[in-house]
Design brief:
The structure holds two protein chains of two kinds.
Chain A (H helix, E strand, L loop, with lengths): L21 H6 L10 E6 L3 E7 L1 H12 L10 E3 L6 E6 L2 E6 L4 H12 L4 E5 L4 E7 L3 H8 L14 E6 L2 E9 L2 E7 H15 L4 E4 L1
Parallel strand pairs in A: 1-11
Antiparallel strand pairs in A: 1-7, 2-5, 2-6, 3-4, 4-5, 7-10, 8-9, 9-10
Helix pairs in contact in A: 2-3, 4-5
Chain B lengths: L17 E10 L2 E7 L3 H7 L6 E2 L6 E2 L12 E4 L7 E5 L9 E5 L10 H9 L7 H6 L6 H12 L12 E14 L3 H12 L4 E4 L21 H13 L4 E4 L2 E7 L3 E7 L10 E2 L2 E2 L1 E15 L3 E3 L12 E3 H11 L6 E6 L5 H9 L3 E7 L7 H8 L4 E2 L2 E7 L6 E8 L4 E10 L2 E5 L2 E3 L2 H5 L5 E3 L4 E3 L6 E3 L9 H18 L39 E3 L4 E2 H9 L5 H8 L12 H12 L3 H4 L13 H5 L16 H6 L3 E5 L2 E6 L3 E2 L2 E2 L2 H14 L2 E4 L4 E6 L3 H8 L12 E7 L5 E11 L2 E6 L4 H14 L7 E4 L4 E7 L3 H6 L16 E6 L2 E6 L8 E7 L3 H12 L5 E2 L2 H10 L41 H4 L4 E8 L11 E2 L13 E9 L4 E9 L8 E5 L5 E7 L14
Parallel strand pairs in B: 1-7, 8-9, 8-15, 9-10, 15-28, 17-24, 18-19, 18-24, 19-20, 35-45
Antiparallel strand pairs in B: 1-2, 3-4, 5-6, 5-7, 11-12, 12-15, 13-14, 16-25, 21-22, 22-23, 26-27, 29-30, 31-32, 33-34, 35-41, 36-39, 36-40, 37-38, 38-39, 41-44, 42-43, 43-44, 46-49, 46-51, 47-48, 48-49, 50-51
The chains are: A alpha+beta, B alpha+beta.
């Protein structure tokens, strides 16, 4: 065995997979309201990796493998041209990488190769979190109900991402585009956050896109 | 002016009510009508309702006194249905809506004639301050009896007994400048800040913004002041950077400019929130504002004068009279006597006169009042009596006369004959108190200013106050001060201010005011009819005087002894008068007496708004595993473990009858011991540890050794706090030379990760290691029992041979086609495999196991069975069998302590303290009840000698206790003093009902002490 045990947790075949919100959608049909002020959409099964290490070595490897510069400024988010792959600053030695489903294990291996003997860690957390997109004219109001962080466009421009207290959970809140917010939510808290969002958005009308 | 027949005190014209819209309402069961734009108070006055409540302590009839938040008497219970009940609403702040139903909060059985009134009359003289302390203190056991009746007689409303149908929530806001109060100063400050580009929030507690301008006599730019208000609000409303929050009270000013605003969004529309487009609106919202700068433009409260019987309905503060006439077109009486210490209050008499009713006299405490308003009153032929004051009101349920006399305020005596003036209304004004409540919340001490006879806010970084709140009363100066405060706030944020040109307001020449608080009476204070200071809490001048005589000199002590300024009132009307009386009694000045601390909330906030959405199913997060749906569908009962919902047991229906927990657990236990069971263990904390120093780090945080754990192997570890007490346990697997997977208890997961980071970041930053939580990434399924191997073998490519895959090994491969790590560890004592797969695929694997498990009678089991099975094996649960005072040695786990490790692991030193070396520490043992049918109570105390006298020496307690289906009897785990040396001893457990259980101390391992079953 090598020093660190790599393990591809995604099956080769096609056993059925259930997203963290599967139970929520099953229990109660997701609302679809005409003229909803807020729209939610789960982007399930994406590849999520947590990188820890020194910024300089990681930056070099991430540029080389992913073609994205490691965001060095706290609470910032970098995306590739298509907006499909992102790297987000979480802490001075910690970044979150989100890539399309199935890319994560190859990416981990290539990063490990590029990083060689440097001290770092890469952890696959794809099964442990999901991404919920929030859009619509009242999306910001719903966020104001949910987090103490300032989500005014002046304080939270596109390209920002912050770990925040969200209701009574902790989520990563990010703004990849002008018209959408993303919440990276831990699997076990996903149903709570989802129900909270539906409740908080109730007065504006809410739709869940599938 | 003529009057409307149904509303005898309503003027035909004037005010901002819409007479074309009539609204019906019910007060104390009687129907009335008012108009759109009324408050409940103005509508009650329009209808000539004098008595709105009974007083708190003496049960005296009380009427409306004020027109705003400071109203002490008109506190009502609102709501037509039980579910919509809201207590503690001030009628002066409640907008009228059609169908409004309200009743008095005090007055049992009713306000007109009540039982407590008799008590008040009879016992009034016998209820001095401190009455409750003195009378009901002993015996303490009877307080429960007194309390019921005292509360019934005196309470401030009822909480609803049915669930509230409404929604409430919180909204977090951030701004550059928060302006509290939208009167002239607040509007000017907000406009200045907004024009400068700042993010501005302007909130105001009233139905309409404008504050004093809504009933002002003074034109602005040559037009009625309300027009300037409208223009300014329009300008503010058009700016993106401005948030206007009407009907919003700033109720608490906390540290770091965190201000809570209570917005009543639909309270003016009905007693439950209406729907819009079929969506239920939020009734009440708490805005949690973080402001860089706060401008307090909270204005003033007028001080009433303290004279005898000043609580009889028909006594009002002067400004309220003007407000009712000018804003609501309501004259609250026919014949007015005004008692004043200042010019400004003359407005009340002028307004009264203009409304076409009689001003009997203006009684002015000054010798030579000569301001513009005084001259105008004289020109109208109104009698002005100088050097005098109203010393007493006559009347029972309504004022019938005012007794007026010349007074000497300095000597506190009358200086002339008493004249009685027939009237039905007495308006009084003793000057104006800046509303300093919010600044006081922050802990800043207010400053007394002799020139304005009032306290102004102290200084605080990030806070300014403007206008009335700063003791500035003349309208042109107030507006200028608002502009100035807005500019200062903007500049304090490092931006440049863009003030606007102040509108034109002609100044009014006002004469000097005189300090006047309590009015002397012919009789000394203690003998005179009651002179009320705090109407809501029924505190009189005599009560305060008694308090000072009994030695209460500090104003904070006087407050607590007399209850002045307590509760929802927070001293709005009475505090300064009370301090002045204390000052008089103690021969001190008011600043020497000082002020009490005002506390949040400024006015009561409904619990709904405080709770927001954090209620019902959103009260606390419910964490679910990836298999939750299956558990629900199988009818599992759930147990809360931390925030997780874990299956507790899976009751089956046998012969149409659902199993009890006892039956289900017995069945589940036997299934594991005899065939195979399965547990959802996904909630266990899992931490991925990588780095060349990972192994070294483990050696320092765990008590046992990790140097030689090879890849592919698993080890159980104990983690201590630095005090040597066990904090968590779990297994850690070596995944690679520099790679480990640690498991923690379900509840301890977050705490352990923090603990590791804490030690790494603060003590051992030189160690190259990283920690990451992977709890949610992996779902864990424990397959356990004699048939576990056979079942798993059907769906895995891992070699499960007992030699190839030993106890405490882990292997990787696929299970049901899904990549899996399988750990051969056991928490049941049986052959066990813990299968870990990526959580998104867990349901597939779980269901596949059940497809293949049918022939083995695969039985799902929950946490209760898990507890029984592990207890039979003597395996501890941290937090149940330990409580933060138990060392690994107390548990008899010396085998898991590496005493000779080169680096002193956390907690090692503590194990050599004399206290941890004691031989009579509580030690972990098993207990076997002598009667096999007995299941001991968890928590039961253990004694060695059952015959000793009470209080007995308690020598231990039961930590876990169950019925064991395998043993066919009850058994327990316990901690007993010196227990390790007491094997075979008999101990006793005296119970509350007098029975005493006997039990034998035995090894905590009840089943398979050699561990053969898990090693097969």
């Amino acid at each position: 065995m090598s020093d660190v045990r790599e393990f591809d947790t995604r099956p080769a075949g096609h056993p059925s997979a259930e997203s963290p919100l599967a139970w929520s959608f099953h229990r109660q049909a997701p609302p679809r309201e005409a003229g909803a002020g807020v729209t939610l959409r789960e982007h399930a099964f994406l590849g999520h990796l947590v990188l820890r290490g020194g910024a300089i070595v990681l930056d070099e490897a991430v540029r080389e493998v992913l073609g994205i510069a490691l965001p060095a400024r706290p609470n910032t988010l970098a995306l590739d041209d298509g907006g499909e792959r992102s790297v987000q600053w979480l802490a001075p030695d910690e970044w979150l990488v989100i890539v399309p489903a199935g890319e994560e294990f190859t990416l981990e291996s290539r990063l490990r190769q590029a990083l060689g003997q440097a001290h770092f860690s890469i952890v696959n957390v794809s099964g442990g979190q999901t991404l919920i997109e929030l859009s619509g004219p009242q999306a910001r109001e719903v966020l104001m109900k949910s987090t103490t962080y300032d989500v005014h466009p002046q304080a939270f421009p596109v390209g920002k991402g912050v770990t925040v207290v969200f209701a009574k959970a902790s989520v990563v809140l990010r703004r990849p585009r002008e018209d959408a917010w993303e919440l990276v939510v831990r699997r076990s808290f996903a149903d709570y956050c989802y129900r909270w969002l539906l409740d908080a958005a109730g007065e504006y009308g809410v739709s869940v896109a599938r | 002016m003529s009057q409307s027949p149904s509303q005898p005190n309503r003027l035909a014209q004037g005010g901002q009510v819409d007479r074309s819209r009539t609204l019906n309402f019910t007060f104390n069961g009687k129907r009335y009508s008012g108009h759109a734009g009324d408050t409940l108070a103005s509508a009650l006055l329009a209808n000539g309702v004098d008595i709105v409540n009974r007083s708190f302590k003496y049960s005296r009839p009380r009427g409306i006194v004020a027109a705003g938040a400071e109203e002490p008497n008109a506190v009502v219970q609102l709501g037509a249905s039980e579910a919509a009940q809201v207590p503690n609403v001030r009628a002066t702040q409640q907008a009228l809506y059609d169908g409004l139903t309200a009743r008095s909060t005090n007055g049992w059985p009713n306000v007109q004639r009540d039982l407590m009134g008799m008590v008040g009359k009879v016992s009034g003289a016998f209820m001095p301050p401190g009455f409750y302390y003195k009378t009901f203190m002993a015996p303490a056991s009877l307080w429960m009896t007194y309390e019921k009746y005292i509360r019934k007689g005196a309470g401030l409303g009822n909480s609803p007994t049915e669930a509230d149908p409404d929604h409430y929530d919180h909204m977090n806001r951030h701004c550059d400048v928060l302006v509290v109060g939208a009167g002239p100063a607040g509007l000017a400050a907000a406009l200045t800040a907004a024009r400068s580009g700042s993010r501005v929030i302007l909130c105001d507690e009233q139905e309409a913004m404008g504050g004093s301008l809504l009933d002002s006599r003074e034109p602005i730019d040559g037009a009625p002041a309300v027009q300037w208000v409208e223009r300014t609000l329009e300008a503010l409303g058009a700016m993106d950077n401005v948030t206007l929050l009407p009907r919003t009270t700033a109720n608490g000013y906390h540290d770091h400019n965190f201000v809570t605003l209570h917005e009543r969004r639909t309270e003016h529309l009905g007693d439950t929130a209406p729907t819009r487009d079929g969506r239920r609106q939020v009734r009440s919202r708490l805005h949690r504002v973080r402001a860089r700068q706060v401008v307090l433009a909270t204005g003033t409260h007028e001080r009433p004068l303290v004279y005898a019987n000043n609580d009889v309905p028909g006594n009002l503060v002067a400004g309220a009279v003007s407000t009712y006439i000018r804003r609501y077109g309501v004259v609250p009486g026919n014949r007015l006597v005004l008692s004043t210490s200042n010019d400004h209050a003359y407005r009340a008499a002028l307004d009264w006169h203009e409304a076409g009713r009689e001003v009997v006299a203006i009684v002015d405490a000054r010798a030579n009042p000569d301001g513009e308003l005084v001259e105008r009153a004289r020109a109208l032929g109104i009698r002005v009596i100088t050097d005098s004051a109203v010393i007493e009101a006559k009347g029972a349920n309504r004022v019938s006369a005012a007794r007026v006399a010349k007074i000497d305020a300095q000597l506190f005596t009358l200086a002339g004959r008493v004249e009685e003036l027939a009237c039905d209304t007495i308006a009084s004004s003793g000057g104006y108190s800046p509303v300093i409540h919010l600044s006081s919340h922050t802990g800043t001490r207010p400053l007394w200013r002799d020139d304005i006879l009032g306290f102004v806010p102290g200084t605080l970084k990030g806070m300014t106050s403007a206008g009335g709140a700063q003791g500035i009363y003349a309208l042109p100066a107030v507006i200028a001060d608002g502009i100035d405060a807005g500019s200062q706030a903007v500049q304090a944020n490092g931006q440049s201010a863009e003030p606007f040109e102040a509108p034109l307001v002609a100044p009014i020449r006002e004469g000097e005011s005189v300090a006047l608080y309590q009015i002397p009476h012919e009789k000394p204070t203690l003998r005179a009819p009651k002179q009320f200071v705090d109407l809501q809490n029924d505190v009189s001048a005599a009560g305060i005087e008694v308090a000072t005589r009994e030695g209460f000199e500090s104003i904070e002590h006087v407050k607590r002894y007399t209850v002045m300024g307590f509760g929802t009132d927070q001293g709005k009307l009475g505090n300064i008068n009370g301090m002045a009386i204390v000052a008089r009694c103690l021969r001190r000045t008011i600043p020497e007496v000082g002020t009490t601390v005002f506390r949040p909330n400024y006015t009561p906030v409904t619990f709904g708004a405080i709770v927001g959405r954090h209620c019902r199913e959103l009260f606390d997060p419910e964490r679910y595993t990836a298999l939750h749906q299956w558990h629900v569908e199988q009818g599992a009962e759930f147990e809360d473990v931390g925030q997780w919902k874990r299956p507790w047991y899976f009751p089956r229906t046998v012969n149409g009858k659902k199993e009890s927990m006892h039956e289900a657990v017995a069945r589940e236990c036997l299934a594991v011991r005899e065939r195979v069971g399965i547990l959802d263990a996904s909630t266990l904390g899992k931490i991925d540890i990588q780095g060349p120093d990972a192994r070294e780090f483990l050696g320092r945080v765990y008590t046992n050794k990790w140097a030689k754990l090879a890849p592919g192997r698993v080890r159980y570890g104990l983690m201590c706090k630095d005090d040597g007490m066990l904090m968590d346990d779990g297994t850690t697997s070596c995944l690679g030379e520099n790679h480990f997977l640690m498991t923690t208890t379900t509840g301890g997961a977050a705490g352990v990760l923090e603990w590791l980071e804490l030690w790494h970041q603060t003590e051992w930053p030189e160690l190259d290691v990283y920690f990451n939580s992977v709890t949610d990434h992996w779902a864990t399924m424990t397959v356990t029992g004699p048939d576990a191997r056979k079942l798993l073998a059907e769906i895995t490519d891992i070699d499960l041979d007992r030699e190839a895959f030993k106890f405490m090994d882990w292997r990787e491969g696929t299970v049901a086609g899904v990549p899996a790590r399988v750990f051969r560890i056991s928490f049941t004592g049986e052959l066990s495999f813990e299968i870990n797969v990526q959580a998104n695929y867990a349901m597939h694997v779980w269901k596949t196991l059940f497809e293949h498990g049918e022939k083995y009678q695969l039985t799902p089991y929950g946490t209760e069975t898990m507890h029984v099975l592990r207890a039979e094996k003597g395996l501890i649960i941290v937090g149940q069998d330990t409580d933060g005072s138990v060392t690994p040695e107390d548990l008899g786990m010396q085998w898991a302590i590496g005493y000779d490790k080169p680096f002193a692991w956390i907690g090692k030193r503590a194990l050599s303290r004399s206290d941890t070396r004691r031989t009579d520490r509580k030690q972990f043992v098993g207990l076997k009840p002598k009667d096999p049918k007995v299941v001991l109570e968890e928590g039961a105390q253990i004694v060695f000698d059952p015959k000793q006298a009470i209080p007995m020496v308690m020598s231990g307690h039961v930590t876990s206790s169950y019925y064991s289906p395998s043993l066919g009897q009850g058994f327990a785990l316990a901690v007993v003093k010196g227990g390790h040396e007491r094997m075979g001893d008999t101990v006793y457990l005296p119970m509350v009902d007098g029975t005493v259980h006997e039990a034998e101390i035995v090894s905590p391992v009840f089943i398979d002490p050699k561990g053969e079953r898990q090693n097969v």
